[in-house]
């Protein structure tokens, strides 16, 4: 009987009351840390739901105009005694720094990608949408969106921002194909692709070259971009709209003689 229970019961839990007390304190601290972390995640989710920037220009403690995340944390601490105690007594981890904010965002995105990947692998039909733009610092970003059918309902989900290595059609198409392969989307699943712009939607050199890998992916041009192109071309052909008028005839220096007097 002694050999039967050998190794299954920790004798310290039965004999040492101090050890049991330490275990209880450790468990309570872990629960408290998880509670604080859940409140921090809720604040990040709040900012994301309303498309608010987390950080401001001045994130110091003395700042009177800090970012939305900092102000939201301070507001939550006024309503939550546990949160307030944490912010006032913690000396190692407060959870308000930009590093922690980025870590939370990365963790949320990682969980989101995992859940969406599991859904995509079970879907019968998937479509991809992509668009790219260059900001004022000449840094190009491309957004990738997945559209899929699940239980008779069509869903459209953001996937991620991509950074192509070049502005060419080859660079754009390669980064899209890489993401599709990481998602394990089969050639039979991908039935549509939607882009805009001359480079993005060119028949020969555009991103539609991905049809060599996904032959069932029919290309659809962005309707909003089609309207934009039509209006742009219409204004380009209208001198009154563009402000470009014909220049006046050049002076020749020759004047007509005055009419003869009667």
Structural account:
- InterPro entries: DUF4371, RNaseH-like_sf.
- It holds the Pfam family DUF4371.
- This protein has 262 residues and is α/β, with parallel strands linked by helices.
- The chain has two domains: 96 residues, no CATH class; 119 residues, Nucleotidyltransferase, domain 5 (2-Layer Sandwich).
- It is built from nine helices and five strands.
- A five-stranded mixed sheet has the order 3-2-1-4-5.
- A hairpin with a 2-residue loop joins strand 2 and strand 3.
- Helix 2 crosses helix 3 and helix 3 packs across helix 4.
- The protein is flat and about 90 Å long.
- It starts with 10 loop residues before the first helix and ends in a 20-residue tail after the last helix.
- The mean pLDDT is 81.
